[in-house]
Amino acid sequence: MQFTRRKSVSDRRMPGDAPVKAIVAAAVGLAVYVSGPLSCRAQSEPEPSLSDYLPPSEPEVTRDAWRQRIEDARRRAKEVSRERREHPELYKPVPEDPDLVATERLLRDDSLQRGDIVTTKKGMFVYQGRSDQPRRDQDFVPVNPKSVR
């Protein structure tokens, strides 16, 4: 006669047992991880406060002093605004001379080579300068000197 052993309840495997064990293991691991840093948090530095951001030489400003600063800034802004309205000529930008700007651009142009022709309001010019020397106004020779006024 042959005896067979019956499986006990602990030997039986239910479908989906592996995911349950993995979830339990992950929950235990998470609990250990979370509880670990809690014991160290008391030893860590406290969170920064407002006084940590203020320069050490300046004490915290009172509410009245802060309001006074705001009023002073508003008064200065109104004074500047009035000054600009009363004397706009002092605040106008100095217009740049377009001819001077174009000349400066030509003198800084690194792509110019000897023999290149440039056109300006004053006519056409041939670049006669050398690449190893800085550019000068004299490096640009008129193409047709008679047409230059």
Kindly describe this structure.
- The chain is mainly alpha-helical and 149 residues long.
- It is 43% helix and 8% strand.
- The chain has 4 helices and 3 strands; from the N terminus they run H-H-H-H-E-E-E.
- It has helices spanning 17-41, 50-53, 63-86, 98-108; strands at residues 117-120, 123-127, 140-142.
- A 3-stranded antiparallel beta sheet has the order 1-2-3, with no helix packed on it.
- A hairpin with a 2-residue loop joins strand 1 and strand 2.
- The longest helix has 25 residues, at 17-41.
- The termini are far apart.
- The model has no long low-confidence stretch (mean pLDDT 77).
Question: What brief labels describe this structure?
Answer:
mainly alpha, 149 residues, 4 helices, flat
What is this entry, summarized?
With about 150 residues, this protein is mainly alpha-helical. Helix content is about 45%, strand content about 10%.
